[in-house]
C-alpha cells in the first residue's frame, strides 16, 4: 500500500494543474494566496477545492481503510482523516497557485509572441505578394 503515498498526491496535483490553468484563463488570482488573504472568499474557495479533489479524497479513504484493516486489523478514523488530507488536499493547495502563475505567464508570453508575429507579417496572401486591389504600387498601369 506504499503506492498511496505516490498515487494520491499525483492525482491531487493533476486536479490542481487542471484547476490552476482554468483559474489563469479566467484571470483569477492564485488559489492559496487568495484563500489566506481574502476572508470573504475563503469558504467558497475551500468548498471549491474540496469538491475538486473529492474523488481523490474518497479513493484515499478507501485505500487507507483497506490498508488499516490489513496491517492493523482495526479501523482508525482519525488516522484516515490526517493521512487523506495530507496526501490529497495539501498537495492540491500547494500546487494550484503556482500552476496558475505559470499558466498566466505562459499565456502572456504567447499573446506577446502572437502580437509581435502579426505585426511583422507581410500584408497580402500567404506568399507575401500584395493584394492588387489594395496595392499602392506606383508602377501599376491604370486600366482604361
Write the layout of secondary structure elements.
Layout: H1 4-26, H2 31-37, H3 39-52, H4 54-71, H5 77-120
Helix pairs in contact: 1-4, 1-5, 2-3, 4-5
Explain briefly what this protein structure is:
This protein is 74% helix and 0% strand.
Task: Jot down its keywords.
mainly alpha, 144 residues, single chain
- The structure class reads mainly alpha
Helical content band: over 70%
Number of separate strands: 0
Topology order in helix (H) and strand (E) letters: HHHHH
What is the overall pLDDT average? Answer: 82
Q: Radius of gyration, Cα only, in angstroms?
A: 27 Å
Helix segment tally: 5
Biggest beta-sheet profile = none
Overall geometric form: elongated
Which blocks of ≥5 consecutive residues have pLDDT under 50? none
User: Strand portion, in percent?
Assistant: under 5%
What's the domain count? 1
Distance between the termini: 87 Å
